[in-house]
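Checklist before submission:
- one chain only
- standard amino acids only
- sequence pasted in full

Submission:
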Amino acid sequence: MSIMAIVATNLKRGQCIQYEGERGVVLGLEHRTPGKGNALIAATIRSFKTGKTKTIRFASSEKVDIVETDRQKLEFSYSEPGTYHFMDPTTYDTIGIDEDFVGDAKNFIKEGQVIEILFIEGNPVSIDLPDTVELEITESSEGIKGDTANNPTKPAVLETGLTVQVPLFVKQGDIIKVSTKDNGYLGRAN
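Returned file contents:
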């Protein structure tokens, strides 16, 4: 395992660090200078172990351990019970990733889609999804004509199996944009 230490003021968003016995990715940084004393760096970090985020404060001159990582853009090939298979588009090597690790990301990935996966020591630690994805509606009931009070919605099942609420005018076969943050309908895809 390769770890190098840098001064907290040199931390960057997206870097992976080791802190308090855990590892995580830096999601955000804020430089704070209190009225008295030294400057502080408040880093928002998502733990690889728990998936939870928390803010950790470092003195500006404090050393922070950076963990060497490998970000790979991999194409989703197929899934089978318990495993999702991704292919490296340059070498055509296939990597099997445990379904539990893929977690809710499975609701947003479809065959042929390229996803960025972060590896530490050859083990996947994070799947980075885009903020929005375009997915086809495979199942949706007809809206009730004349029902326009309070922006009514209906459930729609997407090609990945995810169910989202959509406006009544959206129908089966439409391709829609969906937020990967809150599973929300964002509009029809062009």
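Reviewer check: The chain has three domains: 3-67, 70-128, 132-188.
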